[in-house]
Specification:
The chain is an alpha+beta fold. The chain has one domain: Alpha-Beta Plaits, CATH 3.30.70. The protein is built from eight helices and nine strands. It has helices spanning about 20-30, 65-70, 95-100, 115-120, 130-140, 170-175, 180-185, 200-210; strands at about 5-10, 40-45, 50-55, 75-80, 85, 105-110, 165, 190-195, 225-230. The strands form four sheets. Strands 8-1-9 form a three-stranded mixed sheet. The mean pLDDT is about 95.
Length: about 230
């Protein structure tokens, strides 16, 4: 049976530390201003009865993904395992996927990412600190903390200007039998990732034991990111 991956986020366990966000940026070479993993914060009510919620967000890898349906070049597409992934090499930057995406998790590169590490020769202290270009040259990488592994699986390690990008469920890690970086980094073990077609998998068991919720159920996208518990 073909594997079909999904993720559970336990809001009761989540401490709102943002480790998932940082791990994602480090793993996937996302530039400043682009966050594949993020969070939504809401505060509502009247003092002293005030409720604060913190909801981690990422691409939902929907079964019926609107972004896939509208992409004119099929750059945005689904894999047999249920990943919604993107091929930047054939992206024409039309942003149709962004307009169709109800979750706001697709981002557009207005410039070549990390280009300053190839061009910026200025330094904070002349003859005392390295410039960004010097750091890049010494590390022999596009930028000092570059993760070459992100380029595995046919996906560009750094996305160019004019292309969109988004979470891939760390498909390059999953291909090696590893969990997504956000799952590994969570100090509270608030994330569960696995094959929903495997009746013995943890994600299948937890989904059966709980009443999971999804974001924007009225959109009918059948997302593969589920939430259990409550942040409060």
């Amino acid at each position: 049976m073909t594997k079909k991956y999904g993720m559970i986020i336990d809001l009761h366990r989540c401490v709102g530390c943002g480790a998932c966000n940082l791990a994602c940026k480090s793993e996937n070479n996302t530039p400043v201003g682009i966050d594949w993993a993020s969070h939504k914060i809401e505060t509502y009510g009247v003092f002293p009865k005030v409720t604060y919620t913190h909801t981690p967000t990422l691409c939902n890898h929907c079964e019926d993904a609107p972004c896939v349906r509208v992409c004119p070049t099929h750059a945005m597409h689904k894999t047999d395992e249920g990943f919604v992934v993107h091929d930047p090499s054939i992206c024409i930057g039309c942003k149709s996927c962004m307009l169709a995406d109800p979750y706001g998790v697709i981002h557009f590169n207005t410039k070549d990412a990390f280009i300053e590490f190839a061009t910026d020769t200025s330094s904070e202290v002349k003859d005392g600190t390295f410039s960004k270009k010097e750091l890049s040259d010494k590390s022999k990488a596009p930028f000092p903390n570059f993760n070459a592994e992100r380029g595995a699986g046919g996906y560009e390690a750094i996305r160019r200007a004019g292309a969109v990008e988004k979470c891939t469920f760390c498909n390059h890690r999953v291909a090696k039998g590893l969990a997504p970086a956000c799952v590994v980094a969570c100090p509270a073990d608030a994330r569960i990732f696995g094959d929903m077609n495997d009746p013995k998998s943890q994600i299948t068991k937890v989904l059966k034991e709980n009443k999971p919720t999804i974001l924007l159920p009225e959109k009918g996208t059948n997302p593969k990111v589920f939430y259990i518990g409550s942040y409060n």
